Structure formats: structure tokens, C-alpha cells
Amino acid sequence: RKNTKRVPSFRKLLRTSQIKLDNKLKNKQYKQKSAAKKYRKEQKKLREAVRDAISRKPFPLEESKKKQVAGKWEEKEEEDALPLDMMDEDDLKLMEDLAQKASFLTRDLSSNEPVHVKKRKHESVIEKYEKVPRRLQTEPEKEVIHLLPIKDKTGIIPQAVEKPVLNIEHDEEEDTEDTEEAEDFNEEPVPILTPEEMAAQRRQKLQERKMHIAALASAILSEPDSNIKKLKELRAMLMEQDPNVAVIVRKLVMVSLMEIFKDIVPSYKIRPLTETEKATKVKKETQKLREFEEGLVSQYKFYLGNLEQTIKDWKQRKLKKSNVISLKAYKGLAEVAVKCLCELLVALPHFNFHNNIIVLIVPLMNDPSKMISELCVEAVKKLFKQDKLGCASLGVVKVISGLVRGRNYDVRPEVLKVFLHLRIKEVELQKDSEDIAPKKKFMTYKEKRKNLSRMQRKWKKAEEKLERELLEAEASESKEKKLKLHTETLNIVFLTYFRILKKAQKSPLLPAVLEGLAKFAHLINVEFFDDLLIVLHSLIASGDLSYRESLHCILSAFHILSGQGDVLNIDPMKFYTHLYKTLFSLHAGGTNEDIGIVLQCLDVMFAKRRKQVSQQRALAFLKRLSILALHVLPNSSVGILATNRVFMQTFPKMDLLLDNESQGSGVYLPELEEPEHCNAQNTVLWELHLLQRHYHPAVQKFASHLIAGAPTEGSGALPLDLS
């Protein structure tokens, strides 16, 4: 018969729905799977039948004899049986039907094919168990530990082990045997390298790693958008496992990644995308940029995590399981990690995770390791100096304040001294706002008439008006934001300072606090001046302060009074008296670091307050400073004589002390602690004649200059290099 099935037309195929086509495909696949499954089942049955035939054992002789006897008996019975022609047709038909069925009566016993597989399996297990010979339980029953069974071609084999009995001597013998065997096993010849060969091999490995790092870095820098995934490969080298080159490779990778991030990071902060933004379709370029930004932030985060973990491992003296790097090498790794974090802190203050870097760096400013603490302090100083707006500075100040309070004011003074580098001054604030909002040049009316048509002039006017408004808005916004940030920063700084003045007056942080108060005195509210001066005087009067700290107190008090404190009617005579009294406490040896603070105090107390200082006070200080110049080293002597020169040029009638013939009332009292009542006008500066014979030429020149009356020109004037 000819196949009349027609091929479906194209129109009919178009009408067929996609769901129907999918269902047809699924049905086809299902049929194929079913056929394969059926084939596997048949093959399995065949394998089981073969296995059963192999495992069957031959019958013993007695059983075969019994079978032969049974066979003869059956033959006899068959002879006695009735012939088939004597049976009814119905009975014969029934017998034929039974013969066609595979039952245990009609089955051929010589056939190896199992009929009831499951039943046969159970019977064989029981038979095997029955064949195992019995024995009496004469030995004590041993404990058995059951293990996981093993599966092979024959089936599942249960596993068990006897519980070992503790026998020390036997164990020792076994251990010795095992060690001997191990020694025999380890006697394989290992190639021994000379030190030169080992060094050459190490150099070769190191060169290979360097080339690989350089190749990855150059690929990333050439095309960051497409090669952002190579950052992960480069970061994986931070886990270098070869003990010969692990330390150097990890250091190189840390520095390389730091330089790469500094180059490829954009000049804005990357924010995570919202769900709606992710769902919306965008252009290919936008999608590529999003993927780049997401990958960059992710790798930057992991990199910072690696640096943090390196520092933590060194801090906790914690070795990794692999023991690739020794504890000594961890310090070098930690130092490189800190350097990288410091570089990123300064270079990327606008980017993501900057606050996380601040939280890592600030506690390390108080680290026992001098190198690490100096690195962190310098990085914070740089950040303060370059931070125009003040956002990053505010974050650092908050963390430092929390650290000082959390450690109960037990931190290094350098931690607080970084506040002195904050860019919070009115002049700089004004200059920065001018930088942000530069003046725009607009066209004059004449230029417009000359160069533009009427319609163009109209458009130009509207455009300039809009630009002016935008510039004003931008400048005012940035200025307001900056003032707000600076105010908040200063509030936290002063809060830290006042806490230390109140609760930790014996702390080594006090000089740093007093320096900070002196620097930012012009920004302190006038309402606090009176209370601050009382606190400073009480600190000096208590006698608990060191000489340097008392000098800082005096300097802070006069900085406060020289700024907004001019409006206050406060007489700081007690501060003058204290400085006059303690001038001879200045160290005369090589560690005369305090002379700089003394000269700063004298400058603020006399040069900047010349109108408020009496002549008696100025004469007393001039005489005492001249005496002091005899006892200190040449560098200090030059500084003191330069201050005396300022005294003689600033205050009139200072030449009284150069005149032997002038008469006064009373006698000079050099040991009196009150500068107003020591009668300094009745003495002379005989110390200058001794200083003229000083071994240092600069001191000789200064002394001669002062004896001549400190002229600004003429033969007695100072040379340019000294003046």
C-alpha cells in the first residue's frame, strides 16, 4: 500500500503553536529515554543471570547418587503411567497449556537462567550461612567496630574491625617496625642542590613571577574596562605558596595593586545600583561601564580585606596552616600593607571604603612600632593639608577622638599633634571659596552692540543671567558646606582638648592639648576665654607640670589674649612672673629643645603686646636673658641675643643698660621673682663684654652689635646672613 501521508504545508506549520512543538519534542525525548531505560534493565538482568551461574557450585557425590535413584524411580513411575491416548481431550489440553507456562514443574533444571531473582538471592544467603561450620565460644568475645561497607561487582561487602587491645610493648615494637619501614621507603635519592644552584633557581622563579605581575598590570592599565577580571588573577598572587619567593612576591603584588587602583579609580564615588536600575534596559556602553564599576569596587574591597588580614595576622602573631611565611617575615609584609593603606588614604579620599581605611590607619598611629606609627601619622598629616573641603578630615578627627576616649587618654602625643595640621583658618577658607567659584568675565554692552545682532544680544543676556545665578548658588553652597564641616570638626577637637584638661591633667597629652589651644585660640568662643585662663593658671600654680608643659600653658594663654581676647580686660601679670621666675630652669646642655618655645613666648608676650608692657618689665627680662645667654650653648645664645636685639629696637630707653654713668634709685635685685620690682634700671649689661670673647663667631658678632646699641645700619649693623 502506498504511503498517503502528506507533508504539512508551510501555512499549516505557521498555524502550529510553539507549545505544541515543544510538547512533541518532549514526547520524543521521553520515548528515547524509556527505550534506553528498558535496554539497561534487560542488560542488568542478563548480567545477574551470568553472575548467578558462575557462583553456583557443583553438587556433592551423595546428592548426585540420590538424584540418579530418584531418576530411576521416576522412570518406573512413567512406565506405570497411563498412555496419552487414554486421556480425555480436556485433560490433554490443560496439560499442554501448563507446559507452555514457565513454572517450577515444567522448568528445565539444566537451564542457568534464574526465574525468581529476589527469592533466589535470599535463599543463597541463607544457604551460605548454613554452610559455615559452628564452633564453641571458648575465647572471650571481642568488640567489633563496624565500618562503611564496600560495593563491588559481586555486591555489597560489609566491613568491620576488631577493637584493638592496649598492649604497650607490642605497640612499641610495631612503631619501631613502622619507622624502619619508613626509613627504608625514604631512602630514595633526593637531588641535593648547592647554595649557588638554589640561589639561581630562586632568582629564576622570582623573575618569572615579576614578569607575570608586570604583564597583568600592563594589560589592566592599557584597557581597564575589558581586563578588569585580571585584577582577580593578580590578587590571587597575594596567596603565593612557594616558600622561596612568597614574601617578595606578596610585597610586589601589594604595591602593584595599590598603584593600579590609584590609576584606574574614577574621580567619583561609585554607588550600588537600585533594583529598578538593574531591571531597566540600558545601552551596551552603559552596561559595560556598570560591569567595570561593579568589578572594580568588588576587587578593591577584597584587596583592602587582604591588607587588613595581613596586619591582623602580624598583630596576633598568628601563623597560617600552610606555614609558608615565618613570623619575622610577617612584620615586613605588615609594613608594606600599612604603606599601601597610607597611600590609598591620601590618594583616594573621594572613593569608596575611605572611612574603612581611616578606621584601620588611626589605631596604628598609636602602634608600639615606631616605623608604622610614623607612617600613619605622616599620612594623616598629608590628608589634613590637602583636604580643602574638610569631609575626610572630619572622619579622621571623629575616629581619633573615639580612640583617645576609648584608650582612657593613654595614647602617644603624636596622635593629638596631627590636629595642628588641620586646614581650619578664615584666610584659607576665603581663598578656597574663591578657587571654587572663579570670577567669570562677561561681555560689556559695547562689545555686544559691536559683535552681536539684536536677537543674539537678547539670548546672551538671558544666558549670562543664568550663569551668574548658577555661580552664586555653587559658591554659596560650597562655602556653607565647608563652614558646616569645619565647625563640626573644631567642636570635636575642642571637646577632646577640654576632656583632657578636665580629666587627664597629668597625661603626657597635655603639651599637645596646649599647643592645639594656642593654634585654634582665635576660633574659640569668647565665652570660654575666662574659664580657660583660670584653668591654665591653676595648672601652672599646681606645680605638677614639667617645664615644657608650663611653657606651653603660657604660650596658649597669650595666643588666646592676642586674638579675640584683646576685648577682654584681663591682666596676665601672673604669666609674666612665672616665665621670669623659670627662665633659669632652661636646660643648658645639648637637649635645649625648650629654647624654641621660650623664644615664641617672648615674641607673643613682648613684640605683639608692646603697648601693654611696662618699661620696668622689659628691662628686667632683657637683663635676665643676657645672664642666661652666658650659660647655654651657642645656638641658644644666638637666639636669646636676637630676642634682646628685638627688645632694644622695640622698646625705648633700653640703652639705659648700656650706660655706666646713668643714676637710678635703689639697687638691682637679681634673685627677686617679680620683674616689676627688681630695679633692673640700676644695672648694666656687663655680660655682653664676656660674650664678645665667646669662642663662637656668631655670638661675638651679636654681642658687638648689641654693645653698639643694635643699629640697623652703619658699621655696628649686623651682616645680612645673621640679621
TrEMBL record:
Which residue ranges does the record assign to the CCAAT-binding factor domain? Answer: 550-703
Q: Where is this region: Disordered?
A: 53-84
Biased region (Basic and acidic residues) positions are 53-66
**GO molecular function terms attached to this record:** chromatin binding
Which cellular component, as a GO term, is one annotated location?
Answer: nucleolus
In its keyword annotation, does this UniProt entry include Coiled coil? yes
Q: Which residues form the Nucleolar complex-associated protein 3 N-terminal domain?
A: 209-303
UniProt gene name: Noc3l
List the Pfam families hit by this protein, alphabetically. CBF (PF03914), NOC3p (PF07540)
User: What InterPro entries would the database entry show?
Assistant: ARM-type_fold, CCAAT-binding_factor, Noc3_N, Nucleolar_cplx-assoc_3
- Show the coiled coil region(s): 445-488
- Source organism per entry reads Mystacornis crossleyi
What UniProt keywords apply to this chain's record, in alphabetical order?
Coiled coil, Nucleus
* Subcellular location as annotated: Nucleus, Nucleolus
GO terms classed as biological process: DNA replication initiation
The entry's family comment says: Belongs to the CBF/MAK21 family.
Question: Which protein is depicted?
Answer: Nucleolar complex protein 3 homolog
